[in-house]
Amino acid sequence: TADRRQVPVAEKRLMDVKLNQLGSWLGSRDFTPNGIISAVRRGHDRYYNKYINVKKGGIGGVAMLLAGYVVLSYVWEYDHIKHDRWRKYH
């Protein structure tokens, strides 16, 4: 048999956490300003190394970033757009 060491829930990545462990995993996260900044930095580094900093890169990583920006811009401006639409026709 293989000697498989149990990894504590706090050390698992989000994609490896089961739904019943999600509460304890979230409880073990660092929600201080420095913890949030380091989490964002790790996410940025992972994204950059996976999609941008590659030898044979295409437009995929940049297109994904632009698509996310367009979606976020639309979500942020939706109330304003909806208000203009109702004002125009009523």
From TrEMBL:
UniProt organism field: Myripristis murdjan
TM helices/strands, residue ranges: 57-76
A matching Pfam family: WRW
Gene that encodes it: atp5mf
Main localization of the protein described in the UniProt heading: mitochondrion
GO molecular function, one term: proton-transporting ATP synthase activity, rotational mechanism
Family note: Belongs to the ATPase F chain family.
GO biological process: proton motive force-driven mitochondrial ATP synthesis
Protein name: ATP synthase membrane subunit f
Location(s), subcellular: Mitochondrion membrane
Domain of life: Eukaryota
